[in-house]
Design goal:
This protein is mainly β. The chain contains no helices and 22 strands. The termini are far apart.
């Protein structure tokens, strides 16, 4: 009898799927397999802040103030992490001095010479003066709750905003005994005599510390703030708060001359 012939069926060749064991990178570059118990991580608290170490840094911090050195060959920039020096011509970074203090800072202002700077401690509002090149503390002014401060053009005095403006003599390390009503900003002319102060919505012009303040603008000119004053103190540039327009005020004629 005929013999049945069985054709062999095609054998399916399956594709092997590799088994992947996930891995996890842990501190130091070591590798842990899935299921490995990782070391316990301690939460960051005020008690263990001194154990933290910097791994990397990008950028130069937030710019807080900027000035020129005495011969105007270097730009000095105070940032949120320290003081930088740059060459005026090439903008090459020449030096960097990190802050020696570790408290939070409310504000930092460079003196006109950039030899020192003053900062306000955010926690208690105390003002401290620091030597710029070394980062060494010069002294602290023992009064708290300072809100802002301004160096005079010659760098000899600090106008400090508390509940009122008090004037500190840097060389003698004493209060001058003169004060001004509280204002939110002060801009000095380079002659060191005239300055303009702002306390919204009012703008005041001073012809000296001992002079009475003069109200510049009436109620029709609200929503302006001073942004510059001429070297001789005669002209004051005023800006709208959105920067949409500029006015120039003549302090001798007591009128707006450019609008």
């Amino acid at each position: 009898p005929p013999t049945a012939t069985v054709e062999p069926s095609a054998t399916s060749t399956g594709t092997m799927t590799p088994t992947i064991t996930p891995i996890i990178l842990i501190s130091g570059g070591d590798v842990a397999r899935e299921g490995t118990k990782l070391p316990e991580v301690e939460p960051i608290t005020m008690e263990n802040l001194d154990q933290l170490e910097e791994l990397a840094q990008w950028g130069k911090g937030t710019l807080l103030d900027v000035g020129l050195n005495n011969d105007e060959t270097q730009i000095v920039a105070a940032t949120s992490i320290g003081i930088y020096w740059f060459d005026v011509e090439t903008m090459e970074e020449l030096n960097f001095v990190p802050y020696a203090f570790d408290e939070q800072v409310k504000d930092i202002k460079l003196s006109p010479s950039t030899h020192e700077y003053a900062y306000i401690n955010k926690r208690d509002g105390v003002v401290t003066l620091v030597e710029t090149r070394t980062g060494g503390e010069l002294y602290t002014i023992e009064r708290d709750n300072a809100k802002d401060l301004w160096f005079t053009p010659d760098g000899g005095q600090l106008f400090i905003w508390f509940d009122e403006i008090l004037i500190w003599d840097i060389a003698s390390q004493m209060w001058t005994g003169k004060n001004l009503p509280a204002v939110e900003s002060i801009i000095f002319s380079t002659n060191g005599i005239n300055f303009v102060a702002n306390k919204f919505p009012d703008i005041y012009y001073f012809t000296g510390i001992d002079e009475n303040k003069t109200l510049l603008l009436d109620i029709e000119n609200l929503h302006r703030h001073p942004i510059a004053i001429s070297d001789d103190g005669r002209y004051i540039a005023l800006s709208s708060f959105l920067g949409a327009s500029i006015q120039v005020y003549d302090t001798q004629r007591e009128t707006i001359i450019l609008d």
